[in-house]
């Protein structure tokens, strides 16, 4: 995505916050922040891509902290919080069938997208139950997605963050129930609180479909930044379901040829503007429509 002035500060604030939250001594934090500031200042220019800028700065933070996975503890917290409420929320789908059941599970997974320390509107894992119960889509094309799925046999699903992935499991199981083959794409190495390939395997997603590694810690699936296997997973699918803002931003940077459905909460003004909603709104809409889609259920 094209960078906006506030993106520069937002990305820097997130990266500086990662240094401040670390176990380094105060003196070491000051030194690390100085090095980060110089490095970051050398990256920023009007032509910068938000995802590339955030990625390069995160790699620098990992180097400065000597930590490959700075969000490990937060990821564990998010996963535990999601696991503590998922059964209660999933039980509310009892009696729902077809489209209504699918939309409910997708809504839960998008609400869990709010558990994000790297955005202005991110919530804590403990607030998840309240948010999951009240989510409404400002842009809602879930009916078109469901119609597409009824006409599809292959779906590639791009995972986002760890707490969210617990609810993605509900969506993935519903897709399998519909007889759809799945490829499930996860990061090859840690990026913020996103699900890695190893995380996905620990969660048992290999029982639902083929778990594909991006082979990288890059925030989205963009040729040249990720594995050929991940790029081919997009081409293989009848439709791609993409979770989270970073995957959305990456597709704006490198638009795919496959039909892509994006689902996320627009946690800042630039993303909201790109998605044609207001900040804080939830989005469930096609970024690229499938060819020949019938217009209604």
TrEMBL record:
UniProt name for this protein: Damage-control phosphatase ARMT1-like metal-binding domain-containing protein
Occurrences of domain Damage-control phosphatase ARMT1-like metal-binding (ranges): 3-283
Coiled coil regions, renumbered to chain: none
């Amino acid at each position: 995505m094209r960078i906006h002035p506030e993106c520069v500060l937002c990305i820097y604030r997130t990266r500086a916050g990662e240094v401040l939250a670390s176990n380094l001594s105060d003196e070491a934090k000051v030194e690390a922040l100085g090095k980060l500031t110089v490095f970051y200042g050398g990256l920023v220019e009007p032509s910068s891509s938000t995802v590339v800028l955030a990625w390069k700065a995160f790699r620098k933070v990992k180097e400065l902290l000597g930590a490959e996975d700075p969000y490990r503890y937060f990821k564990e917290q998010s996963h535990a919080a999601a696991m503590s409420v998922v059964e209660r929320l999933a039980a509310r789908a009892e009696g729902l069938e077809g489209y209504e059941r699918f939309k409910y599970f997708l809504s839960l997974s998008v609400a869990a997208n709010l558990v994000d320390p790297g955005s202005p509107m991110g919530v804590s894992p403990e607030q998840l139950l309240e948010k999951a119960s009240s989510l409404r889509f400002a842009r809602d094309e879930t009916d078109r997605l469901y119609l597409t799925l009824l006409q599809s046999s292959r779906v590639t699903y791009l995972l986002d963050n760890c707490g969210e992935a617990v609810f993605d499991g509900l969506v993935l199981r519903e897709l399998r129930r519909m007889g759809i083959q799945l490829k499930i794409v996860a990061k090859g190495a840690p990026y913020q609180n996103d699900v890695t390939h190893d995380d996905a395997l620990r969660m048992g997603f290999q029982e639902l479909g083929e778990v594909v590694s991006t082979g990288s810690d890059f925030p989205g699936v963009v040729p040249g930044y990720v594995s050929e296997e991940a790029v081919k997973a997009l081409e293989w699918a009848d439709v791609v379901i993409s979770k989270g803002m970073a995957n959305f931003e990456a597709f704006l940077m490198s638009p795919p040829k496959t039909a892509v459905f994006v689902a996320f909460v627009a946690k800042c003004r630039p993303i909201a503007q790109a998605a044609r909603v207001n900040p804080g709104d939830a989005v469930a809409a096609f970024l690229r429509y499938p060819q020949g889609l019938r217009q209604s259920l």
